[in-house]
Specification:
By secondary structure, the protein is an alpha+beta fold. It is built from three helices and six strands; from the N terminus they run αββββαββα. It has a six-stranded antiparallel β-sheet, with helices on one face. It comes from Natrinema altunense (strain JCM 12890 / CGMCC 1.3731 / AJ2).
Length: about 130
């Protein structure tokens, strides 16, 4: 059986959205997909598709490219960077004020690892806020 690799940025973002919205267990239950642009078209620099919020706080924005998606973490940037590196996702800091962390999702198969990053960020933010 031949497996088809999903590398369409819009489809990857849809898979991530479905994975987060469809889970009612663990840390993913704390997340919601908000402010979705249902008509988003991928661009070379990435077009914002939706926000990822945790308890009404925006944690990351999701962008779509032709061949991948990326999350731009606004909260828990250091946690996201370490967690993404641990699961072999490409990470890059973004030198903005305030700084952000970009985590690249380059295939449909990487969506599960991305949800692992989101869960780690949620757990660590919970510990930090306690």
């Amino acid at each position: 059986m031949v497996e088809e690799r999903i590398t369409d940025g819009r489809r990857i973002a849809e898979l991530l959205s479905s994975e987060v919205d469809g889970r009612e267990d663990g840390e993913l239950a704390e997340y919601a997909v908000t402010n979705a642009d249902r008509d988003v078209e991928p661009t070379a620099d990435g077009a914002r598709a939706y926000d990822m919020t945790r308890r009404d706080e925006r944690i990351a924005r999701v962008f779509v490219h032709d061949d991948r998606a990326h999350l731009e973490f606004e909260a828990g940037q250091d946690i996201a960077a370490a967690a993404a590196a641990d699961v072999d996702l490409r990470v890059r800091p973004k030198a903005t004020q305030p700084p952000k962390t970009l985590v690249f999702v380059e295939s449909g198969a990487a969506v599960k690892r991305t949800t692992d990053v989101l869960q780690t960020v949620s757990r660590r933010l919970e510990e930090r806020d306690a």
